[in-house]
Design a protein that fits this description.
single chain; two-stranded parallel sheet
Length: 295
């Protein structure tokens, strides 16, 4: 429920949750970052009341948990009950999550080459002693698991981390497709066209704005970022689209392409990956062929 133009209403979410077999996803793209903790607090309060009466929802997953429960004082913190029940807090920044959340965590799961660093970050933020030894980073199809086995987290005894095999997914899903296409990223994760002399500060908070600005900036500015590999770097570090990164890198290294041709090439890459029928999230003005309709 919810999209880039409208936030879901708490009452509507709860109506759906009253149906025993109905899972619900609340999309907060339209909710400003500063308003997400109080929104989460209101929804969490209602869900806890529902749990007390019916036991549902059985699980609650907080994606981008550092935005819902930031380390600074926030209203979502105050809504956390002593016994939260089954919940998952998903984040790439555990040190940015409220200590009140971290003290309730009793299982850490990390995946990918940065799992060890994330575990270290989590341990320091939660005030947990580091394990005696760290395993090698998990490979594809594996995850790093660290459990609190005795006593209450975080003061309980934590076992040694171990690597486990992960059941392969039955479908392939790209996360945050709509957010990266039309939502608004925070300033620190946005792309900035600055130019060779750092005179500009044109912010692209999503792929839609990136493509619009790409068509409008001067050739020197576009080429400056192109030759430095800034576009593929942003696609890798923020968008997290490996295929888009690889194909953009080839364009960045092609010295025979003009500025106009490279803009069009990258534009088509984004269009193909973000305007497919199952992921039709870019505005029509940026869909393939739209440039001809505007002429």
């Amino acid at each position: 429920m919810g999209n880039a133009e409208q936030a879901p209403k708490v009452d509507d979410i709860m109506k759906l949750l009253r149906q025993p077999r109905q899972p619900v996803i609340a999309n907060l793209m339209h909710v400003a970052f500063a308003d997400r903790p109080p929104y989460c607090a209101a929804l969490l309060s209602e869900m806890q009341s529902s749990r007390a009466l019916t036991g549902r929802p059985h699980w609650i997953l907080f994606d981008e948990a550092h935005q819902l429960f930031p380390g600074t004082a926030n209203t979502a913190d105050e809504a956390l009950p002593e016994q939260l029940g089954p919940a998952i807090f998903s984040t790439v920044h555990p040190n940015a999550i409220s200590p009140r959340v971290l003290e309730r965590v009793n299982v850490f799961i990390g995946a990918g080459p940065g799992a060890q660093e994330t575990l270290t970050e989590f341990a320091h933020a939660a005030g947990i002693d580091m394990p005696r030894s760290l395993l090698a980073a998990p490979e594809a199809g594996e995850a790093l698991i660290w459990r609190c086995e005795r006593g209450e987290a975080p003061g309980g005894r934590w076992s040694d981390p171990r690597i486990v095999r992960v059941e392969p997914a039955k479908t392939q899903r790209r996360r945050h497709v709509c957010k990266y296409a039309t939502g608004m990223l925070i300033p620190e994760r946005s792309f900035y066209f600055r130019g060779p002399e750092n005179r500009l500060k044109l912010r692209a908070g999503n792929l839609t704005l990136f493509l619009e600005l790409a068509e409008g900036v001067d050739e020197d500015t576009w080429q400056f970022h192109l030759r430095r590999g800034d576009y593929s770097t942003w696609f890798r570090d923020v968008i997290g689209d490996a295929q888009l990164v690889d194909e953009t890198s080839l364009i960045e290294r092609d010295m025979h392409l003009s500025a106009k041709d490279s803009v069009n090439a990258i534009r088509k890459l984004v269009q193909v990956r973000y305007t497919q029928p199952e992921n039709s999230v870019l505005p029509n003005v940026l869909a393939p062929g739209a440039e001809n309709k505007r002429q």
